[in-house]
Amino acid sequence: MGEFDLIKRFFVREQGQTGVVLGIGDDCAVLAPTPGMQWLVSTDMLVEGRHFLSTVAPERLGHKALAVNLSDLAACGATPRAFTLALALPRADASWLTGFSKGLFALADAHGIHLVGGDTTQGPLNISITVMGEAPAGAALLRSGAKPGDDVYVSGSLGDARLALEVFRGSISLPGEQFAQVRAAMECPQPRVALGQALRGVASSAADVSDGLIGDLGHILQRSAVGASLEVDLLPCSAVLAAQPLALKRECGLAGGDDYELVFTAAPAQRAAVQGAAEQSATPVIRIGRIEAAAGLRLLDAEGQVLSHQFSSFDHFKS
Amino acid sequence: MGEFDLIKRFFVREQGQTGVVLGIGDDCAVLAPTPGMQWLVSTDMLVEGRHFLSTVAPERLGHKALAVNLSDLAACGATPRAFTLALALPRADASWLTGFSKGLFALADAHGIHLVGGDTTQGPLNISITVMGEAPAGAALLRSGAKPGDDVYVSGSLGDARLALEVFRGSISLPGEQFAQVRAAMECPQPRVALGQALRGVASSAADVSDGLIGDLGHILQRSAVGASLEVDLLPCSAVLAAQPLALKRECGLAGGDDYELVFTAAPAQRAAVQGAAEQSATPVIRIGRIEAAAGLRLLDAEGQVLSHQFSSFDHFKS
């Protein structure tokens, strides 16, 4: 199977997709931006051993590779439009490609985003996706809009992906069914695209939680030049994580990584609107803290006592 | 040096670039498409040993990684606007990153294209760039517009990059100065962006020559459902390649790869306009054949005799 056969067999689909003038098959794709909309762009690269384990099923990997990119569009409240895929593969393995493309396109179809171009080459497994989406001019959610007094929210639940990773690392063990559940959280994250769009005009800032809540909320605090306090024991988590020892539970929730939830802020006057956005998008949302003028992040326990913390966000160039 | 320090130190530059509402630093970049323009997108991934050798200087690699992507915009006649960079690196090497980013930004500045987002991670060296450009609605040059009777043209000269590769492979040797010249062709290709834009409304089809002339002209023939004949000895080449044995010269020119020239077609009535586009863009262009209704590609020698050919275009999944 050669490069062009591979592309044709696994990645070329029907034309005639919304806004796509020309998809795969030329030097460039040709897209028609919707008048009045701004264009949002993000890129994520996935490397074996850093972003996924060799044990992941190809179908789940195809899902995850797109999901982590859609999560960036979600954080900005964008409507997904198109993506490109650059793929380095050790070899052209039809079985692997069948699974990978199945998982990829299932998620793409669920979000109405079209694969419009790409590149395939031989090399150590590497998946690089660039997503493009749209939002009305000036309406994109940014990290820079949080204001003192705003509430801090997070969607879904945190920490299961990290818990699964700890099982793979051998540092803890879980019963089979519980492991399957947290493994699915790690391998099949659901990007909060509908919530992000529903929060346009409601949230004052947003980011996706990919490197851990502390790190990603930290980006909001830095870009907004504010601080925050969080009520640590309000962090939403699954029943599986809730049953773990407190220290592990907090570590996973605060600094777990790979959550792909949204952390966002909104003025107290928007509480009903936030609730409405959560219902409209069928996404659980919980208020976990507030933005303050004083720089830094303060973690409070259930009694309102400040916790000292050494949690650090995931960094690809630190061990 | 952590991931965010690395990005800040080597890849974040001033904001306020044309059309860029928000660059690096949020979950997505925010871009403002020009009203009435279509958006052109292309992705290329570069892997060590496939697209470049470990001997390449980082500055040249930074140049080449963007150049091969700009070449796709050139082939469509697009005006470059923005790009994203996803980079997997074995380690955060400041010296390497200094050279790489210098070469990358020198070429970006020369073409007025802005780095708006990206991703860095640890892993086997891999460079994945997505470029975005604009062209007036319906004006992009495509592979599908060639018509019987059209002339076939190619820009610049072909085959030097392949000749350099043969030196690295040890199959031929060249005097130092000649090697330096063909090595520069391989490592520092100049994308024909100005020519591509000048050919809007003039050329009937275009493609960039990245996998070898036969392969890339073959894409035009396939997408346009036509054939062509080429006068092989008209192929433009450097004095270094011209001095090589005929068989090697033809192999390099017809199936060399890594040329990043444009192959394009235009009606005979456009000959003066093609010449004008060449002059306007200060890019040599030569007519090398014609499009015919009969499928297939016929190679003719200087006496008009048909050459049998076994040249094959580069394929990343064939040896």
TrEMBL record, chains A, B:
Classification via SUPFAM superfamilies: PurM C-terminal domain-like, PurM N-terminal domain-like
Binding site for Mg(2+) 3: 27, 72, 208
Boundaries of every PurM-like C-terminal domain copy: 147-298
CDD domains: ThiL (cd02194)
Residues annotated as binding Mg(2+) 5: 211
Positions of Mg(2+) 2 binding: 44, 72
Pfam families per UniProt: AIRS, AIRS_C
Amino-acid positions noted as binding substrate in the UniProt annotation, renumbered to this chain: 51, 258, 314
Annotated coiled-coil segments of the chain: none
Annotated residues for binding of ATP: 118-119, 143, 210
Domain PurM-like N-terminal: 25-134
Function statement: Catalyzes the ATP-dependent phosphorylation of thiamine-monophosphate (TMP) to form thiamine-pyrophosphate (TPP), the active form of vitamin B1.
Family affiliation: Belongs to the thiamine-monophosphate kinase family.
Protein name (record): Thiamine-monophosphate kinase
